[in-house]
Amino acid sequence: MRRPVSVIPLVLAATLGVFLISIEERSGRASAATPPSDQVRGPSHATASASGSPVAVAHAAGPGVRVTMPPVGLSIEYSVMAQELGTGACPPAALVGELLRLGSPPLALAGASQDLTAPSGALTGTPASWETATLYSLPSSFWSQLHCLLSSAKEPLTVGINAERGSLSWAQQMVAGAQSAATNGLDFSLGNEPDLYILPNYASLGQKLSLEEDVAAVNLYLRLATYLRQAIGGFASVGPELASAKHWQRQLRGVIAQLHEGVVGVHLYPFSRCKDPRAATIRGLLSARAGDAPRSLAWVVADARAAGLPAIISEANSISCGGIAGVSDTPAAAVWAARFVLSALKTGFGEVRFHLSGASYDPFSVRGGELLRRPLESALFALNRWLPVGSSLRTAGGAPGLLATAVTGTPGGARMILDNERAGAQTIVLPAAHAVVAESLSATRPGLAMLTLNPSAGHIRIRVAGNSVLATRP
Question: How many CA atoms lie within 13 A of 266 on its CB side?
Fold first, then answer.
């Protein structure tokens, strides 16, 4: 049975000009939409009869959120980076090409391996303990290969320092290597997920820590990080790289102040294969809980701003502990990522860095000089194109289940991003005097689809599939 037509026009601020969007939602295939009979001029309200003409006007709400850094970056485990660099003096052309395709996003050497990595040549003889035996030694060619990569890809570099081991000489060697590799900016991260240092093992990841345990973890980390900070000298730091920021909600401002962070970075995954694998499904990934997860950390942004600092989500992906095949490597992950990044930016985070650990949630991998892209990669590619540095975005009104984001400020970015959060398709009708390019990410089809829409009688129609994100571009 066909549901009644819902038509809701959208008028943006005067700086955008008049931009009317009418939205039809139907349970089946969308039929041809009737263009609105009256052109809306300026930010005025409209009334309508029961025949289906415009009944309300929604404005782009509040001030725009400025995009101050590339919205998408990469966080890569040391061992994965070493493998991707290959065996030659310079990395495979496929890797360089992929990073350029993604817009030369910030590159962080981080993750669990950060606290398991030793400088090349630091480990000699028979391991003195089990902990030493599990450490990863950097290949001798790592920094020179990385320098070759960054010389071509022009990415800023964040280098993670092993804080759990707490060796100042190791930290100094890593800093020296990083300086020899970086070509377009360099900062450091002291330790990975220090809120978990006090836990005895990975089986304890899901347990709730007491206030006393949280305070003990904070004090332990402050001693380690303060000691190691002398190795990085005048370079800025990103941190404290918390696994679950709520563990240190009472102490975060003090940590930021004591360590003189340059950027406040925390980690966020909507699901965990270690703690709640049953919730980590495609349906869960497409839920509001997963897409809007960054809003739960608005207080981190507030703490960072109180210190005059930017905040980023320095490690994220669909499902922690390596993701889940059949979920993390499906097109649904691309739709989730687009929603997650938009939510993060609107919450006040400047950037989201997606994690690569050699697992199913990696957006891409390079093996034998060949590049393998997973569906998530399409979202990373699209977001840095849709939201270039210098642009602004703001939420605008739309039909139920369809979130509209207006983008202004640069000629090459998106004009409107439409997120259909429902399973059924919605049809958009908007005035247009010239052709419009539409790009979309779908939960059922991999890749970034693109089509050019030519106007007819001053309007174009766009069918936004269920659980998809679509952007219009000039």
Answer: 28
Cis peptide before 240 (omega within 30 of 0): yes
Domain 10-64+392-473 has CATH 2.60.40.1180: yes
Q: 65-66 and 392-396 as β-strands: parallel, antiparallel, unpaired?
A: antiparallel
Q: Which residues contact 140 (CB under 8 A, 6 or more apart)?
A: 120, 121
**Encoding tokens for residue 179?**
């300086």
The structure tokens listed for 60 are 């782009």
Question: 123 pLDDT band (50/70/90 cuts)?
Answer: confident
pLDDT in tens, 335-365: 999 999 999 999 999 999 999 999 999 999 9
Over pLDDT 90: what percentage of the chain? Answer: 66
Q: Tokens for 237?
A: 């730091």
Render 285-319 in DSSP notation, one character per residue: HTSHHHHTGGGGGHHHHHHHHHTT--EEEEEE-SE
| CB 10, CB 403: distance < 8 Å | no
Residue whose structure tokens are 């020179």: 144
195 Cβ contact partners less than 8 Å away, ≥ 6 residues apart: 209, 214, 217, 221, 240, 242, 243, 244, 247, 248
CB distance 285 to 317 below 8 Å: no
The reply to whether omega before 91 is within 30° of 0 (cis) is no
Q: Which helix (H) or strand (E) holds 135?
A: none
- The residues, any chain, with a CB within 8 Å of residue 361's CB and separated by 6 or more, are 317, 318, 319, 322, 323, 328, 329, 333, 355, 376
Please state the domain extents for the chain. Answer: 10-64+392-473, 68-386
Q: Enumerate residues 6+ apart whose C-beta is below 8 A from 346.
A: 65, 393, 395
Alpha helices in 193-261 (DSSP H): 211-229, 252-259
Q: How many Å apart are CA 442 and CA 444, to the nearest integer?
A: 5
Amino acid type, 202: Y
Please say whether the structural domain 68-386 has been given the CATH code 3.20.20.80: yes
* Residue located via tokens 């707490």: 166
